[in-house]
Amino acid sequence: MRKRFTPALFLLFTIIGTSGWYMALAQHSFVGVTKGDKKLTRQIQELLKGFNGDVGVYVRNLKTNRVVMVNADTVFPTASTIKIPIMCGVFDKIHQGELSYQQELVYRDSLHYDDGIVGSLKDGAKIPLSYVVMLMETISDNTGSLWLQALAGGGATINNWLAANGFPQTRVNSRTPGREANRSRYGWGQTTPRELGELLVMIRRGRAVSPDASDRMYRNLGRQFWDGEGLSQLPPDIKVAAKNGAVNQSKSEVVLVHAPHGEYVYCLMTKNQKDERWVRDNEGYVLLRKLATLLWSYYEPSSQWKPAEGYEKWW
Known about the structure:
By secondary structure, the chain is α+β, with helices and mostly antiparallel strands. It contains ten helices and eleven strands. It has a six-stranded mixed beta sheet with strand order 1-3-2-11-10-9, with helices on both faces. Helix 2 (38-48) runs antiparallel to helix 10 (283-299) and helix 8 crosses helix 9 (211-221). Mean pLDDT is 92; it is low at 1-27.
């Protein structure tokens, strides 16, 4: 027997049928309406020509909401930029009362991953959680980062937070059950240039975990020891929040710049690089510096600042 298709039933099916679309739209509703910047897009595409590998770029002027997207939704290895999501996971646990930012941790040799600062501690050494977070974001300490990943509940818990907050492609792979294939392909973590850039914006605008947690996280990201690539091409008196990452075939950097004429965020990620050398003129590192220079001159055309002669010897 055929049921009558009443207006009420039609409304119900309409709601069900569009709910998935609405949720997808709502995932990044905090971004607002964006418009492509055709001029800057052409300049960046020209900059990327001839690069021996895959590259993705996302740029957004936070004042005008004009964007550039070149492979911005393609998945790339995070390398150490995964330490931003790990920090979000830690602060979510703090927000829930399961951790304390100033609590004392006890290091054990079983936590050792490499001989960074945390990995060089003696068994039984005590260190505040806040120090480990600082070392993870500032000098990119790997042992400390894996320790914090575990304290945050592990990769699965962090991934649940990412999914709930509108980041469907950004995931922790390492030491996360069920993601072994992803780890084999992408390493510690995976993301897209757009998602990583917008995660940094989310923190900047106080929308990650809570306003106070976002404030603390953003301050941590403003203390970057590894400032020899894109950051070296910006005036030293300009506030930035950043995180970079590198493995043999991938070089990445996400930066939010407090430029005089308006803040902008950008993220450049590479993969499948033919140039695997760990030297300053690695093709990926060079591209990071060139993009930073291009964006600064584009958004601040009246600026006469240039890196001091001989600056490169310090990196």
